[in-house]
Prior knowledge:
Layout: H1 2-6, H2 12-42, H3 47-54, H4 62-95, H5 100-119
Amino acid sequence: MYHKLINGEFGLKETFWKFGVLGIIIIDFIVKAFGGFLAKKLAGISILTYYTKYFNPLKMDSALLILTVCYFVSLAFFLFYCVSVIRGVWKSSEAYERSIWLRHIARILTLVLVFISISSFF
């Protein structure tokens, strides 16, 4: 299925709505959930500050370590998924012959959705 997505073998409607909008919203929610749990556990301290100043391997909080790993793994997967969806929408819109306007609107909206989702993390 991933191979079909990145090669644009699904239709533009399916690629844009199912993989683009719905997929990005679901994965964005998961990343933000892990980020919220991690922020609650850190109590206002940034991840970098915690691991450079306060982290002690002898008194390690395993829940915090697991949440940090889950957050960064889900964030990396989200970025990988966004690149895949952009490529899939781009390729499937090339094959879309009904309307040149819809082809370009789908491309622009996918880029805007990815940009908004990624900028909300920083």
